[in-house]
Specification:
Strand content: 15-25%
Number of domains: 2
Number of strands: 13
Number of helices: 8
Helix content: 25-40%
Structural class: alpha+beta
């Protein structure tokens, strides 16, 4: 039976629960649809669910290995570290390693991100690499398996075993369709790339929301914009205009960008960024902050110094 998976972890969503939850009732979070603008309250356990999304090894070896099991371990360690960060408040700017690892997987694990990966794979497959892979890439095992391609108009699906045939079909306009195991391996590989390649080249700040203000979260968990554009592939993070935001609690958000100048931004500006860079929904501890973010997301300004 497939596992009921949270593509944004339940513990992270619960941290954004409304403080107005009454005694005897389970916590609820305010959530806004980016498609309809509808705002409602829901239990964190029923938000961001995709059944079976992480079922499978995803490149991990071992009979019981799976992306779901690996994510559970990362989330347990991150939940403890984020609680410690919340208790420390503004006293320290240190971000524990468990949190960086968690944010890297957050950036890579969502359905919206996988759609970007699949689109980029079809658009950029015949381009020349501009930089060599990170150290350690040579240890990645080459898994031989069929690749699924789809005819552009007829919708015919075909499984191919030959790399030569695969490239020939792509030249004819066929599209590579990621199967479940392809998707899981892409999540694993991209999470590793975020940790060892994309994140280290950015300068990071821990932002703290002042009293009476808060950050929001979204279906992307960690999302970015490049030159004012959302839904760009992770390779675009090489661009000097790239900025990435990862909300951890209503009071704490991580921001990565190029340069070391101070970043004097309000939670409202961060929330606008989060709303614009997201795909399906935004969520937070109160209705008003979501209404403001929905209104503000009509503009695409980057976070400014």
């Amino acid at each position: 039976m497939s596992i009921r998976a949270h593509t944004v972890p339940k513990f992270l969503l619960a941290g954004f629960a409304s403080p107005e939850t009454t005694i005897g009732h389970e916590p609820s979070i305010w959530i806004a649809s980016l498609k309809t603008g509808e705002i409602s309250r829901r239990s964190p356990k029923n938000v961001s669910i995709v059944r079976g999304f992480y079922d499978g090894p995803g490149g991990f070896s071992g009979t019981d290995a799976s992306v779901e099991v690996h994510l559970a371990k990362i989330e347990r360690e991150a939940a403890k570290a984020i609680r410690r960060m919340a208790l420390e408040g503004e006293e320290t700017s240190v971000v524990p390693q468990q949190v960086w690892r968690f944010v890297a997987w957050q950036a890579a694990r969502t359905p919206g991100f996988i759609e970007i990966v699949e689109r980029a794979a079809n658009e950029l497959w015949d381009t020349t690499a501009v930089e060599s892979p990170p150290i350690g890439f040579e240890k990645v095992s080459d898994r031989q398996c069929p690749l699924s391609v789809e005819a552009p108009e007829a919708g015919e699906l075909r499984q191919v075993d030959s790399e030569e045939e695969f490239h020939q079909l792509l030249r004819k306009g066929w599209k590579w369709k990621l199967r479940s195991e392809d998707r899981l391996e892409a999540i694993h590989m991209q999470a590793w790339y975020f940790q060892v390649r994309h994140f280290p080249r950015l300068s990071w700040l821990k932002l703290t929301a002042p009293k009476g203000e808060c950050f929001i979260i979204s279906d992307r968990g960690a999302a970015w914009m490049v030159d004012g554009y959302a839904n760009t592939p992770p390779s675009a993070l090489r661009d000097r205009t790239a900025q990435i935001v990862a909300p951890l609690t209503p009071k704490i958000a991580l921001v990565g960008r190029y340069g070391n100048l101070p970043l004097n931004v309000t939670p409202r500006a961060v929330n606008r960024f989060v709303a614009f860079a997201s795909d399906a929904w935004i969520a937070g501890p109160n209705r008003e902050v979501l209404e403001q973010a929905l209104s503000d997301r009509r503009t695409t300004d980057a976070l400014t110094h």
